[in-house]
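User: Hi! I'm working on a homework problem where we have to compare a predicted structure to a textbook description. Could you give me the structure for the chain below?
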Amino acid sequence: MASSTSNNVPIDFTQSAARVARRLIGTTLLVNGVGGVIVETEAYDEADEASHAYGGERVRNSALFGPPGRAYIYRSYGLHWCLNFVCREEGHGAGVLIRALEPTRGIEKMIERRGLANPRLLCSGPGRLCQALGVTDSLLGKPLDRQPFRLVAGEVKPVVAVGVRIGITKAVATPWRFGLKGSRYLSKPFPVTTTR
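Assistant: Happy to help. Predicted structure tokens:
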């Protein structure tokens, strides 16, 4: 699957991770009907030392080298699930980490799963987001254009903030973090940003 046009999203997942990461800002992501507007993403590529694809394909990262437009899910520090969208052509390891959403649908379910009621904290970070949406490794490799996933294009072209990725120790200067400018639902504010 190269794109999710059947779900009203003209995103070509065979493009570079950075391009897809930027294009996803403002898109609505639903998992079994629960979710919201993507407000923060990060791009990773096989030539990037911070990427799980760096060093080539292995058993634990094989989904990143599979068909584009599928879910790559891993556990961060043995604690939290993280949801990524596979990009580029099959055989090239690249993906987009979904870092934060503005909750819009199924908020009661998110509150139940997260055990808190502050909407700003429900999905502001990749681990929180996965807990709120009920994402686990059971969705590893699943196509994004079929249930339980649904992607819907935003109605307005977003103003995108660009900065360096966070929470990593390698390739820290790469400006592959993208966010909806001014969103209060980001995992962390952009200190100095450019917009595109």
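For your comparison, note the following. The domain at 3-195 is CATH 3.10.300.10 (3-methyladenine DNA Glycosylase; Chain A). The chain has a mean pLDDT of 88. Good luck with the assignment!
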